[in-house]
Design brief:
heterodimer, A: mainly alpha, 15 helices, about 65% helix, B: alpha/beta, 10 strands
Chain lengths: ~400, ~250
């Protein structure tokens, strides 16, 4: 093994890699643009769409209520909804989005209220349709306010205080710092994305430097040189690893930037929900990078080993597509509620890194688990790299026809 | 010098079982001479040459190339061999100069020697006009020149050519043939495989006829003509291979 040769091969692979337009797309553009587009772009889009939906005055239909003229009149005076004349096909009109919601006032509603009887007001809407929900919400708010007024009037008539219905308050309060709340909400997602991009960043160069070279006929050319096959495979491996880490690093930078922008413009929530403030500090980013390092080695070596079997780029892609599922499934498993780091889970590759990234983002550092995960992933990575070097020695793999 | 000693290569095929691609081939090729390995497609020429260039490892037997054993010292063998075939392509995103320099470095040249060698070769092969052009932008002829430069950069004492003119136009093929002659004239040991009779007649000092992985006949053109009573090499080839071919087809 010669460091000079490995460096020489690495430099050549790097030169070719940087001259490949597809590299720019998969390694630089995708991670840099994906997060801002996904997070800032989608958030802005969602806020805009919700805002537009809220601005709309929903058309609603009032069914019945002829014997409750006061209620009917006050609904018609509501400025927040537009009342359309009742029609027999009101259900179809809701489904076809011609009206947003309908409310059915039961017979004898007003007189029942006066007598203290209970009746049910039904509000009909299109579930899952945002504008319909807003229409239904406005109707529900009107009737809730009306009910509160009735209660207050009844209590006043009996000279009872309003507190009789609410002798005490129950309130939940968050004590975790906003960073931890944000980390708990998005930490799993960050780990998942870093892992996924580590793999996708390695995939294209792993194919290009193995099956791609076979297809182009340059594999035989390099095999005629005086360097050992070990040097060749290591030179190529370091390039694949660089691509993987470059993608992961750019994705972390991009994510940190996206969250910073979101935090500045308070894009999360509408001020009523929890404060989902998320900051990926230098320590967290460095820790995530460190944990992703052995995983990137593992991905690079495994992808190279598999791609080396293929005779062409296309064949390699078909072999590696299932790998995406093998990576996504454990990464997604870490997002499941209740899945927490344990000694057993710390030994499962990918899942362990995803879980530990989640913890790191919230500012929690379980050093024993971090050490276990780092070491176990290093062992898997070393085994995969050993396998890759062995595969590169096999003529049946290199000259498969 | 090249000395093949009972070189054999067997492959395992799922459908056909064991395949003897090369079966006990022995020959000797001297410096300043061209040895032509003549055979039909699938005769075992490429496998033999790949073993000599240490791209493949022999199953049995060995060969001494430039004084080194192909099994024991493959890296030293490669450092003294230039291997050219139509299968050895160029890196598309490297320039002609980068391609040649890369192989110079891989073959252990220091930067000073490398620069001198590259300048020399580029001038000799009239390649200065496309020095900075990427290999994927070169014509077939230019690509062949870059490949030649790549094989020459470390000044190997042994040159191995595996069907180097296959699929090339007349002018490009002539460049290769001229280059092979030059190698011989410079005292290099040259071996090349082909199934083009005219090339063998024009170039080779010694001819080896290979078929079914076995070396069936060997000698100078004059020797083969005398032995088989034919003037035309094609007739000689058919006489040697023909009965086996018929037997194989039956």
């Amino acid at each position: 093994m010669s460091a000079r040769n490995i460096r020489c091969i690495y430099r050549k692979e790097l030169t070719e890699w940087l001259r490949d337009r597809r590299t720019l797309i998969s390694t630089v553009l995708v991670p840099l643009l994906m997060f801002p587009l996904m997070m800032v772009g989608f958030s802005a889009l969602a806020i805009m769409l919700i805002g537009q939906a809220k601005k709309e005055t929903p058309k609603v239909m009032v069914l019945g209520g002829a014997d409750s003229p006061e209620i009917l009149e006050s609904i018609h005076k509501l400025g927040s909804v537009e009342i359309v004349p009742p029609a027999a096909n009101w259900k179809d009109q809701i489904s076809n989005k011609e009206i947003r919601a309908a409310v059915a006032i039961p017979d004898g509603f007003q007189s029942a209220l006066a007598q203290g009887d209970t009746k049910t007001v039904n509000i009909y809407f299109y579930e899952g349709e945002m504008k319909s929900s807003f229409g239904a919400d406005r109707l529900e708010k009107y009737f809730n306010d009306y009910r509160d007024r009735v209660i207050r009037d009844r209590l006043a008539a009996r000279k009872l205080p309003e507190t009789i219905l609410k002798p005490f308050e129950v309130k939940q309060e968050n004590v975790a710092p906003p960073e931890k709340v944000g980390g708990a909400a998005f930490g799993g997602f960050i780990g998942y994305m870093v892992i996924l991009l580590c793999m996708t960043g390695a995939m294209y160069p792993a194919i290009d430097l193995t099956a791609g070279e076979k297809e182009r006929g340059t594999m035989e050319t390099i095999l005629t040189s005086a360097v050992s096959r070990m040097d060749i495979v290591l030179g190529k491996f370091f390039l694949v690893l660089s691509a993987s880490l470059a993608t992961a690093t750019l994705s972390v930078i991009s994510m940190a930037g996206s969250f910073a922008i979101l935090g500045r413009y308070h894009a999360f929530g509408d001020g009523h929900g929890p404060d989902l403030h998320l900051q990926i500090g230098v320590k967290s980013a460095a820790s995530i990078f460190l944990m992703a390092l052995p995983l990137a080695v593992l991905f690079s070596a495994v992808l190279m080993t598999i791609a080396l079997f293929a005779k062409s780029h296309k064949e390699a892609q078909s072999y590696l597509t299932p790998m995406t599922f093998a990576v996504v499934i454990p990464a997604v498993a870490s997002l499941m509620p209740g899945v927490e780091l344990s000694a057993k889970l710390a030994l499962i590759p990918i899942l362990n890194t995803s879980l530990v990234c989640k913890e790191i983002v919230t500012g929690t550092y379980h050093w024993n688990y971090i050490a276990l995960i780092f070491l176990s992933t290093c062992v898997y990575a070393a085994a995969a790299l050993f396998l890759a070097t062995k595969m590169f020695q096999r003529e049946s793999v290199l000259f498969r026809s | 010098m090249i000395e093949a000693r009972s070189l054999s290569k067997r492959f395992q095929d799922k459908k056909r079982g064991e395949i003897r691609a090369v079966d006990g081939v022995s020959f000797r090729c001297e410096p300043g001479k061209i040895y032509g390995l003549l055979g039909a497609n699938g005769a075992g020429k490429t496998t033999t040459l790949r073993m000599l260039a240490t791209i493949l490892e022999p199953t049995d037997g060995t060969a001494i190339v430039a004084g080194y054993d192909v099994v024991e010292q493959p890296e030293k063998v490669r450092a003294n061999v230039g291997f050219l075939s139509t299968a050895t392509a160029l890196y598309p995103r490297l320039t002609a100069q980068e391609m040649v320099e890369y192989f110079g470095r891989l073959n252990g040249l220091d930067e000073v020697t490398l620069k001198k060698r590259v300048d020399e070769i580029f001038a000799r092969l009239e390649m200065d006009g496309f020095r900075e052009r990427r290999c994927d932008k070169l014509s077939t002829g230019m690509k062949q020149k870059v490949s030649i430069a790549r094989t020459l950069v470390h000044d190997p004492v042994v040159m191995i050519f595996d069907e180097p003119t296959l699929g090339l136009d007349v002018m490009t093929a002539r460049t290769i043939v001229t280059f092979i002659r030059e190698c011989r004239d410079r005292g290099k040991t040259v071996i090349f495989s082909t199934h083009v009779m005219s090339e063998v007649e024009k170039l080779c000092d010694t001819i080896g006829i290979i078929h079914g992985g076995k070396l069936l006949a060997e000698g100078t053109l004059a020797h083969l003509r005398a032995k088989y009573g034919e003037q035309d090499l094609e007739e000689i080839f058919v006489k040697i291979v023909g009965p086996l071919q018929v037997g194989a087809e039956a």
